[in-house]
Structures are given as C-alpha cells and as structure tokens.
Design a protein that fits this description.
The protein is an alpha+beta fold and 332 residues long. Helices cover 34% and strands 22% of the residues.
Length: 332
C-alpha cells in the first residue's frame, strides 16, 4: 500500500500540470518559437554535464560507503591526467557550445531586427507591408495605435496571421514591460524613450498579453488579449473599431491616462495624428516643449543633450526625430 501511495505522489506533479499550457515551450509565433528552441537546446546542452555529475555523485557515494569493504581505496591518490582532462574539457566544451548558441540566438531574435522569415522555411514576402502598431503603457492599461488604419484600442490587440508586425513602444509616465508570451520576448516601455519589437503570429487564436514589470497597485490588472486572425476577420475587427465613432483627442487622452484598474476594452474610430509622437516626446499638454525639439535646439547651439536620452546605451536622436532606446529581454 505504501508503494502505491509513493507512486501516486510521484505522479501528482504531472497531474497538476495536465491542464496547463506551457506557452513558453510551445508558442504560436515564430519569434517566440525560436527563443523557445534556444532555451530548450541550451538546457539540454547544460544537462549533458549536470546529469552525469549528479549520477556520479550517487554512484561514488554508494560505492565508497563505509560499509562496503570490497571497494578499493587508495589514501595516497592525488592526481589523474585522464580525470583532469575529463573534468576540465567537458565543461569547457559546454561553455563554448552554450556561448555560441546564446550569441547567435540573441542576435537572430533581436527585437530591433526586422523579420526575414515568418515561419521555418517561409521567407517574408517583400510585397506584404508589415503591420505598424504603436504601443503606450498607461497606469494601468495598454493603448494601441494602428496608424495605417487610423484606429486605436485599449486593452485589445489584433493582427493578421503570418503578417510581420512592427511595434514601437513607449510609456506615459512609468516603466512597464510589454509581453505576449506566444508572440515574442518581453520588451520594456519607458517614458520619453522608444523601444521596438518585430514579431509575427502564425496561428489564429486568443492569446494573453501582460505587463511583466511591477508598476504599482494596478499591476495585476494590466493585462490584455491579443487576437491572431485571418485577413478577413482582421478587416472586420478594424471595421468594428471604426464603427465605435469615438474620437481619441487630447481631452479623451487626458481622461484615459488617469490611473485606473481593470479597464474594459475600448475602441477609437480616430485619434490625433501626432498623439503617439507627443506622448513619446512628453508634450501632450499645450505649451510643453517636445523632447525632440529641445534636443534639436540644444544640438543646434552646441549644447549637450540632457535628460534620460543622454544615458549610456541610449541612441541619441538625429536632427529632430524620436528618442530611441534599446532595452529588451528574452523570455526565461
């Protein structure tokens, strides 16, 4: 009876995981899939040394236990060239392999790198225009602009299947992290700076998105749904947003940016053409000087740029474009 109980307890973790979808190991987007493959292969390479070491510890402890009088023990042994070669060469080879995987994989899945494929063996069609989405993290909600379609949404994102997506991301007033596990790795949003993300979704479905960086009391409610659709359903989704008739002007944005929790999905049929740029450059309110204008003015007068965009590792704007920051992270 005790043996059956032990077997049942050993299977309990598998039963508990039976209803789980291990999204990081089986994502629906090609970029997330590549990141998952890197993680799995790296784990297997590392296990090539960890597993034999764990087995050897058990074997040695059992073989040379005090009660085993038949095991040969040499109290004067202190060196073995063969053992030294094994102990040092195997970990060195694993470090080289893991390092090469990490280096190549990190550059191939760089969020700033435009996609050259949408799936294994399927190159990006040069005739297909990527879907542009501008993302703004607010407290505690997500605002999405579709500049190609003139619509905006709150806490709902959609994209056609197998169409490259080009995200530009910023934040209104605090640091967050945009993360759709099925789509691609996590990437930060920061006030006054812009990050980028290239991704694609390969299967229709409803996928959860979230903020992966703690940002205050409403952090747990800062979630949204991402829908992968075929082109016909995506056009219907765009038409539904346009049918809302709601305008996202400066007054509506002022209300939207007020802290709130568990906001419902909202659709905007139109928005201020330069609203995203003004949020990025922190000049939504009248009378505020935009960051890009201030930096262009400082550069014209030979003054060093000030503010967060002058931090090490941050790309400085040219004549008068938007500040840009390369801040990203890969799913664990």
């Amino acid at each position: 009876m005790s043996l059956k109980l032990l077997r049942g307890l050993s299977l309990l973790p598998l039963a508990l995981l039976g209803g789980c979808h291990l999204v990081l190991l089986d994502p629906a987007g090609d970029v997330a899939r590549q990141q998952s493959d890197i993680m799995i292969v790296t784990t297997l390479i590392t296990a090539a040394i960890i597993v034999p070491v764990l087995i050897a510890i058990g074997v040695i402890a059992w073989r040379y236990r005090a009660s085993n009088q038949r095991a040969h023990y040499d109290g004067h042994w202190d060196h073995s060239p063969q053992l030294e070669l094994l102990v040092w060469a195997a970990p060195l080879l694993i470090i080289i392999a893991v390092g090469a995987m990490s280096w190549i994989g990190t550059h191939m899945t760089d969020p700033y790198r435009p996609l050259d494929r949408i799936a294994p063996g399927a190159k990006v069609d040069a005739a297909v225009q990527p879907l542009d989405v501008d993302v703004v993290s607010l407290r505690w909600k997500w605002l999405f602009f579709y500049p190609q379609y003139g619509i905006a949404t709150v806490n709902e994102l959609a994209a056609p299947v197998d169409r490259p997506i080009h995200f530009r991301l910023t934040s209104s007033d605090m640091m967050d992290a945009f993360f759709v596990p099925d789509l691609a790795g996590m990437i930060y949003t920061m006030p006054g700076m812009q990050t980028k993300l290239h991704a694609v979704i390969n299967a229709p479905g409803k996928y959860q998105g979230m903020s992966a960086n703690y940002s205050g009391a409403g952090f747990t409610d800062m979630r949204f749904w991402f829908y992968g659709m075929d082109e016909a359903h995506f056009q219907q989704w765009v038409a539904r947003a346009r049918a809302s008739g709601t305008q996202l002007d400066r007054g509506a944005y002022d209300q939207l940016q007020q802290p709130s929790r568990a906001d419902p999905v909202r659709y905007y049929a139109a928005f201020m053409p330069d609203l995203y740029s003004r949020i990025l450059n922190r000049c939504v309110d009248p009378g505020q000087v935009c960051l890009d204008q201030q930096m262009a003015r400082d550069a014209h007068h030979g003054m060093p740029t000030t503010g967060m965009s002058a931090m090490p590792g941050m790309a400085m704007p040219a004549a008068a474009p938007q500040p840009d920051a390369a801040a990203s992270a890969v799913a664990p």
